[in-house]
Write the structure tokens for this entry.
Amino acid sequence: MTHSDPSDSFVPAAHPSTWLGVMGGGQLGRMFVHAAQAMGFKVAVLEPVADCPAGHAADHLLVAAYTDPKALAELGEQCVAITTEFENVPAQSLSQLAQQAFVAPAATAVSVAQDRMAEKAFFAQCAQRSGVMPAPHRSITSQADIDALPDDLFPGILKTARMGYDGKGQARVRTRAEVVAAFAQMQQVPCVLEKMLPLAYEVSVLAVRGADGQALVYPIAENVHRDGILFTTTVPSPNVTSECAARAQAATLEIIAQLEYVGVLCIEFFVLSDGSLVVNEMAPRPHNSGHYTIDACVTSQFAQQARAMAKLPLGDVRQHSPAVMLNLLGDLWFVAGDDLPREPAWEALLALPGANLHLYGKDEPRRGRKMGHVTFVASTLAEAEAHCASACGLLGLAS
Ligand code: ATP
Ligand code: MG
């Protein structure tokens, strides 16, 4: 018997003085460590790089490859429950951990999110009940697949089926010849060609499900990306209609239930120019667009993850303050024409009303690297937006 089945009651609810484990040492792991420790848990992190954001905060850091059987055994021995902070953790490692501890989310759910084709097939299946479909798409693994592409998929976006993030592993293609070139550029790894859709805006829905099957959704968040990386998240979404928000939340609840998922999950959607809703992808973990929950909701996405994996009651998802989250990328450390990094104007930033600064403890700023975020909370969304715009001005970002 393994402990990966969410209906399994073999592992009792964990007491907040026991150990929880995390696969991965990035900023999501770090914020999870902070939230779990605040509740009294001790946290162990497994990560191959010793100098990592979560490692600086963890009670125990295991420096090892994600597939190292000895390290996995040690983590499984120490912890009552284990989660992951990035979706590309080898599903095999989660299965091994499930022999010793409660693993949430389970390897089966994570592996669906790891493969865009499996993910889209799963979304299409859930759409039979939710009515929310993924973008029209085809799998590309050979020249024959390219030859067989229907004309109405163009213009499109070619995406690698696995390992894509922050817009990496993607190419925009207008013709079959461009697909051939982009597919060659991607070393002919399995890809998905998606029809380019007329996006009005992008939204995401964060959800959590307990081992008992209870599921909750957070308010809908509206996301703006720049250069393929999340720039701001605004909640509540200023543009989405309440009808569209309800459809996205219902589709998310359908997906999380069908997956028999335990823990925090985030689903990204597109709202098209005609108002219709399309499901894009899911992250089997807390998500960048859910960072605002730390400062603006009763229970943060990270505290929620600790509760779900420990089989404790889920927390209240209510948002108590309108919020705008601004990502802080390494670019902010570089002034035009100067190669040496300098610290951004934190004092001025923190003087803005409602500013909550979160830095991830990364020493080396690099362009495009997520160094931290700041969330502005206020009594009205307009105020939070105005303070975020001021922050952009201070930091030299066009808002
Ligand atoms: P991340 O993991 O950072 O969310 P990703 O690299 O996995 O990103 P996607 O979210 O699928 O990739 O795509 C990145 C961005 O590209 C989307 O946020 C959206 O702006 C744009 N995009 C993706 N697919 C489409 C599409 N079918 N039509 C129009 N725009 C798209
Ligand atoms: Mg995305």
Summary: Residues 1-10 have pLDDT under 50 and may be disordered. The longest strand covers residues 199-209.
